[in-house]
Amino acid sequence: MNGKIERAHLAKFGSLELLAKQVVEGFITGLHKSPFHGFSVEFAEHRLYNNGESTRHVDWKLYARTEKLFTKKYEEETNLRCQMVLDCSSSMYFQHGNNLRKIDYAAYAIASLIELLKKQRDAAGLSLFTDHLSLHTNCKSSVRHHRYLYSELEKCMTSTDYSKQKKTSAVQALHDVAELNHKRSLVIIFSDMLDDPGKQDELFQAMLHLKHNKHEVILFHVIDKLAEIDFELENRPYKMVDLETGENIKLQPNAIRANYTEQITRYFQQIEERCSSYRIDFMRADINDSMFRVLQRYLIKRNRMR
Q1: Residue 247 contacts residue 260 (beta carbons within 8 Å)
Q2: What per-residue confidence (pLDDT) applies to 244?
């Protein structure tokens, strides 16, 4: 990666769409359910007719049965507000061998989804966090705004300053996103979830804050499965350095592999299970797998569940 988002490298999804599963609040007519009612295409419910209103939407068949005047209410369709939330902590810059860094993989995934939203005339916003929320943009659908989002993603991809040791602390950042998004939105989080395990309850409280504010939440767990979970390293001495704290340890992979993989697998399984119990969509995004295939699998599954 050269730090520039090449449009030719973005995933193409054909006829697949990114649709909201629950009602959203937008500002133009689009593909998604709105909590507001108007006179659109899909019937929602009846309400009593008020004197002086137009009789255009009176249900005359119901009047014939009940001798009472009711008007039809319809679901309004709206465009989607989609807030992309990207973990930019130092652990996202981990690179093993010739693999992509997690930050590059996530940035290209976000850029691909922005292109899809652009095609649907939907609005996209971007939030970046480390141990705090460093950037938050409102959701917009203009070409100028999309260019700005790409430029911010490219800044993340070109950053190589590890001396600052940017730690992960998603809790406050997600609370902030929940409060800053004033309208119901789709919130998509990209993170390696390498946060303090002791703060897992607080992390899910932050995600439930998003859901309490009527946002729909999707979590893409960006990870290098071979290196960070399976611990597939050559059996030779290594000096491991924590990118977020600077702590280091010397070890032989074979000596700790079994215990390490058991514990980290259990930790990530707990996150996935809690996401399921709280109705938060969870998707593993292994950087050893094609970003296009990961997004395509998720969009196909999501469209089938609607």
Answers
A1: no
A2: 82
Contact 10, 111 (CB under 8 A): yes
Instruction: Extract the residue ranges of the chain whose pLDDT is less than 50.
Output: 23-42, 75-78, 163
Report phi then psi at 46, rounded to 5.
Answer: -100, 155
70's CB contacts (< 8 A; 6+ apart) are 46, 47, 48, 49, 58, 59, 62, 63
**For 27, which DSSP code?**
S
- For residues 194, 245, 5 and 288, what is the CA-based torsion angle, rounded to 10 degrees? -50
Report the pLDDT value the prediction gives residue 103, as an integer from 0 to 100: 95
* Distance linking the first and last C-alpha atoms of the chain: 36
Buried b (16+ CB within 10 A) or exposed e, 167-188: bbbbbebbbbbbeebebbbbbb
Whole-number Cα distances in Å, 252 to 196, 207, 231, 246 = 24, 37, 11, 19
Q: Which residues contact 213 (CB under 8 A, 6 or more apart)?
A: 178, 179, 181, 184
Q: Which structure tokens are listed for 37?
A: 């009612």
d(CA 231, CA 253): 7
H or E stretch including 127?
strand 123-129
CA angle 135, 3, 130 (to 5 degrees): 30
Domain positions in the chain: 7-18+80-305, 32-78
Separation of CA 286 from chain center:
15
Read out DSSP for 169-225? -HHHHHHHHHHH--S--EEEEEE---S-GGGHHHHHHHHHHHHHTT-EEEEEEEE-I
Given the candidates 3.90.550.10, 3.40.50.410, 3.40.50.970, 3.30.565.10, the CATH classification of the domain at 7-18+80-305 is 3.40.50.410
Q: Six-digit token pair at 4?
A: 């520039």
CB hemisphere CA count around 258 (13 angstroms): 2
Full-model pTM: 0.79
